[in-house]
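Problem statement: downstream parser choked on a complex file, so we are re-checking the raw output for the pyridoxal-5'-phosphate run. The parser issue turned out to be on our end (a line-ending mismatch), but while we're here, posting the original submission so the record is complete.
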Amino acid sequence: MRPTDTPDRSAATLLAHGGMTPDANDGSVVSAWQPSATFARDHTYALRDARYDYARNDSPSWEPAESLIATLESGADARLFASGTAAGAAIVQALKTGDRVVAPRVMYHGLRAWMIDYCAEWGLQLDFFDANTPGSLDATLAAAPTALLWIETPCNPTWDIVDIAQAAALGHAAGARVVVDSTVATPLLTQPLLLGADLVFHSATKYLNGHSDVIAGVAVCREPDDFWQRVVAVRGRTGSILGSFEAWLLQRGLRTLSLRVRAACDNALAIAQHFDGHAAVSAVLYPGLTCHPGHAVATRQMQGGYGGMLSLRVAGGREAALAAVKRCKVFLPATSLGGVESLIEHRATIEGPDSPIPADLLRLSVGIESADDLIDDLDQALSG
Ligand SMILES: *Cc1c(COP(=O)(O)O)cnc(C)c1O
């Protein structure tokens, strides 16, 4: 859906209004949940609104969230999907047999595993670069023509930072389209399209909805070009659409995004600073700390905070890390991220035996609770 017509307002104001305007007939401040699967034509057999014929193609229930997210990302168009995975997959499925994808070695593990299988089975070439090795992206791009360069920043679970402007320039010089998984940064902290990316997508399950009660995704384009039309067609033709009620819940969640992201950033920084140098912790991985290798780039490309995600490497190793998770009382031992409640996970267990994640690493999704409660909880859990 196209951006709202009030892009000059601040993100906090646009979000609080949730992409909605009062109903012309009854003044309702909140738009109604619209579950209709189909749309009746008028007496001339014309559609009343050319966008809406059947709700697998387009639905008024998606409009407020799509227009709001398009505006926040400074994009031309945004489309909701059934999940973040569906949004990312649609971008790969819009490629053609023989196309080459270049992606970071460390990226969201579910999409990475799917991409490896899909590219092998459907005749696409897939090559990985190491986001932390200078020259790795240049060398990978130089090896063969590239259709799609995939970036994720900050990146799970070390919160490595990719310089989007630099990567986009390299990708474009190699003739590639550039897509950013910006789930962790949110449109409030980073706007990849303004840094040169062509496409951005989010798992809206995470910060955008923010309440751990909806699985959703969204993709946004800088230009509604032919490739974007293919992405939109994948959604309609494969039916990877968001349910109307889930879209309504997402729209409701978005209204508090600016408060939630600010609280999560503040809490995460407080936790990172508290445990930096702590006897039970061998390393704190958080781009907001000056010792993090991505700190300078993060400071340039993230505005207003470094995000709500951080990882702790536990000095006692795997067993000490697992024991600490079990002792947490405020942090819940669950996977996922970006909700109002804080979560902690032993990432190597979640990803399984093939995981490249160090066994002493605990991943924290910091919520909006009191920072003191969160720090006390981790202190008692780590001191055993
Ligand atoms: C969760 C997540 C995804 C996948 O999103 P789903 O909504 O779970 O399908 C993709 N990328 C990142 C960075 C994520 O955290």
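For whoever reads this later: The chain has two domains: 11-254, 257-383.
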